[in-house]
Every structure is written in structure tokens, then in C-alpha cells.
Amino acid sequence: MRIVFLGPPGVGKGTQCRRLVADLRIPHVSTGDMLRRAIRDRTPVGRLAAERMDAGQLVSDDIVQQLVERRLDSPDCAEGWLFDGFPRTIAQAEFLDRMLASRTTPLDLVLELFGDESILVQRMLRRARVEGRTDDTPETVRARMRVYHSQTEPLVEYYARKNLLARIDAIGTRNEVFERIQESVRRARPNPD
Ligand code: ADP
User: Fold this and answer.
1) The pLDDT of residue 129 is above 80
2) Does the beta carbon of 53 sit less than 6 angstroms from any atom of ligand 1?
């Protein structure tokens, strides 16, 4: 299956994505992880991305699109994938549409995790203390929320129009949320026979 996972920062996207890819046995393509790796490895992409990420701003569409295109062409992505953190702008979504159209591999499902913003912000600030992610400071958390609303949230409407969207309430235990996700995946799955 080919799945895009949307959701604001702090909604538990990473955790649920990891469970879902294990369940479906498809690669987990997280642009946030790819960019963090590039920064760690001090690659040219990492150098371009670091400042933007630490400010809670988006990295340029060009850079992210190049990373994704290369990743999509690796053999393990032939039978499906889950995109986590991509697309994040309408321009990226249109790029993805063009890429998938040229490969005749359409998207099957877009999952959107949603939750009350004040709960999400609290979760992130807690995570900042536990994991020490450099973009989890109170200022960047607020910046990332603003960026999500202005740049990424329009994708919800974009995919709803294409009839690909399933909205998942992210408030509940991890297991409850995962069950909701599995239910949406079952409904979107093409019939095995
Ligand atoms: P979260 O969803 O928790 O904010 P991610 O790990 O998905 O975190 O992304 C962290 C940062 O990486 C973003 O704030 C942004 O700077 C950068 N980033 C990740 N994916 C993209 C993307 N598709 N386009 C632009 N920037 C991105």
C-alpha cells in the first residue's frame, strides 16, 4: 500500500507510523529522519537544512523533493511505502502527484491524525525534556504549529477532494489510536481477490 501520513507536530505520528509500517511490512519514509541523518552526517543537504529545522521552519521544497524522489526509486519502495512528514506543502503534494502519475503507482490512502492543540504542545514540551530534540524548545514548538496550520493543513482539504482522506482522532491510548488507524487501512485496502 502507498500511504501518506499527515498530522501536526506532537500528535504521535512517528510512533503510530512505526507500528503501521511493521504491521504492513512497508518502508517508513520519514523526511524529518532523513534530514536529521543528513545533518548528523554533515552532508551538503544537512548544512542547508539545519538552520531552518532548528528555527521550526520548513526546509525548501527542492531539497526535500530530491530526497524523496531518490528514496522512492530504491527497490524496497516498489511494493509500497508510508510517507511520514511528506508532503508538507501544496507544492510538495503536486510534485508527489506528478511523480506517482509518471510511475503509474497511485496513492491509496491519506491518514490525518488530529488532536487538541494544547495537549499536543504539552506532549512536545515533555518530549523535549526526555529526548532532547533540538527543535522541541517552546519557541520552535510554537513556530512548527504555526507552520503546520499555514502550510500543511491545506493538504487535508486537498486530499479530501481526491477522496483519499481518513481522519483519525489522536487522543486516547497508543493502542486505541492504532486500532482506529488499522480500521481505516482495512477499509482502504483493495480486495485481496
Ligand atoms: P514533526 O512532525 O514532529 O514536526 P518531523 O520530524 O516530521 O517533525 O520534521 C522536523 C523538521 O524537518 C520540520 O520542522 C522541518 O523543518 C523539516 N522537514 C521535515 N519534512 C519536511 C518537508 N516535507 N518539507 C520541508 N521541511 C521538512
Assistant:
1) no
2) yes
CA-based torsion, 106, 64, 132, 148: positive or negative: negative
pLDDT of residue 131: 76
Short-list 87, 56, 75, 68, CA closest to 154: 87
Distance of CA 85 from the midpoint of ligand 1 (Å): 6
| Residue of 11, 88, 133 to mutate, ligand 1, most atoms within 8 A of C-beta | 88
Number of domains observed in the structure of the chain: 1
Residue 37 lies in a domain: no
pLDDT of residue 191: 58
Cβ atoms of 8 and 117 within 8 Å: the answer is yes
| Residue 32, ligand 1, Cβ within 6 A | yes
Confidence (pLDDT) at 41: 97
4-38 pLDDT tens trace: 999 999 899 999 999 999 999 999 999 999 999 99
Instruction: Give the pLDDT score at 192.
Output: 56
Report the CATH number that the domain containing residue 122 is assigned in CATH.
3.40.50.300
In a domain? residue 90: yes
Backbone angles phi, psi at 147, to 5 degrees: -60, -40
